[in-house]
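Thread: "does anyone have the structure for this chain?"

Original post by V.I.:
We have the sequence but no experimental structure in hand. Need at least a predicted one for the grant figures.
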Amino acid sequence: MKEIEAIKKERLLYFLLILSIFIFSGCIGSNNGKNEVEWDDEILLAKECGMDRLRCCSDDPACFYGQTCCTDPSDNKRNYCANDCELGKEEAFCRKDEPRCNSGTACVDDFCLLCGGENQPCCEEDNKCGNDLLCYKDKCVKCGSAGNPCCGNTKACEHEDKIDYTHTECRSGVCVYCGNNGKVSCISEPYCLTGHLLNNDVCLKCGEANLPCCDKDDNGYECNEDKNLTCELGFCSKK
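Reply from O.Q.:
Generated one for you, tokens below.
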């Protein structure tokens, strides 16, 4: 009997120890402990409104920390919370009348954003882009890059002299990739780069396993011999 009572007491002590650890750890993780979540973080997690640069809340207060609810003069359904509602400055709503934004910024989707730098919107002033950039599709870009306008100097595109996958050429005033991997053929020779086959003005990969054989000459085709491939019925396969 004494052994049974000792076992019961041991189990009781073990249970009380586990319970005390659980309660103690719960206190540490509570909002009254040192590791508590900041109350403003709790608001941010609980709401998607009322904080700086977020939309205004529909209830009161519309904004926290004494901030003001700023409304778009061109659309009263759009708003955000800020320390002040001055129009026309960077990252603020555009004015309804001209000038819509302060100098150095441009109105994009009713917000004034920095302008004139690379991949930034074009400014509304006469000098729309700085640092030798061009205004193209309402953005300031470098000339010569694929998808951007061709440069006016002797080298129209930055990779036009490279005979690899980066090869570009100027077409209709824009630099485009050509000659490889499903892209259009180039205007001048080589129309397609090595390892590609011209088909309906498109350059397709060839010479590798299960791909079309590359043009060799007027009498035959070729495949990648380093990989022990041979041309059979117009496609490359293992010998």
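V.I.: this helps a lot. Confidence is low (pLDDT under 50) at residues 21-37, 42-46.
O.Q.: and The chain has four domains: 46-85, 88-142, 144-205, 207-239.
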